[in-house]
Amino acid sequence: MARIGTVYKKITANGLVVNNVPYKKYDTPCWEGCCENELRIGIRTSHQVAWLLRHYMPNQGLIVYNFDDWSEDIETIWREELRMKQEARKNG
After folding, report:
1. Which of 30, 31, 28, 7 lies closest to 19 in space, CA to CA?
2. I need a labelling partner for 40 at 20 to 30 A (CA). Which of 1, 6, 27, 59 fits?
3. DSSP helix/strand/coil, 3
4. Residues 58, 82: Cα–Cα separation, whole Å
């Protein structure tokens, strides 16, 4: 299976929407010619979208977020929250 491009889709949860989430598009071998191409979201992107939907957007009062707007500032906040969460797990 070979990667053939990127597709941008929206993800919705609890009335919140994240637009332009990148999915990797792979050709799916199908002997009958009936299969659609497979879309996969990266693990990092999946975690970022989950964080946006569960924490960032509700705390900022946002209903719609464009994933293209992910910036260094938001990356810093996301990484800091991940670090704090990992430390809390270590310390019990």
Report:
1. 7
2. 59
3. strand
4. 17
Euclidean distance between CA atoms 42 and 22, whole angstroms? 8
Question: Which domain range does residue 23 map to?
Answer: 3-91
CB 92 within 8 A of CB 45: no
pLDDT tens digits, residue range 1-58? 677 889 999 999 999 999 999 999 887 766 666 667 788 899 999 999 999 999 999 9
Q: 3-state class of 52 per DSSP?
A: helix
Query: Which residues does 33 contact at the CB level (< 8 Å), separation at least 6?
Result: none
pTM for the whole structure: 0.82
Q: How many other CB atoms sit within 10 Å of the CB of residue 21?
A: 21
Rounded CA gap, 39 and 37, in Å? 7
For the chain, how many structural domains are there in total?
A: 1
Q: Note whether 22 and 6 are within 8 A (CB).
A: yes
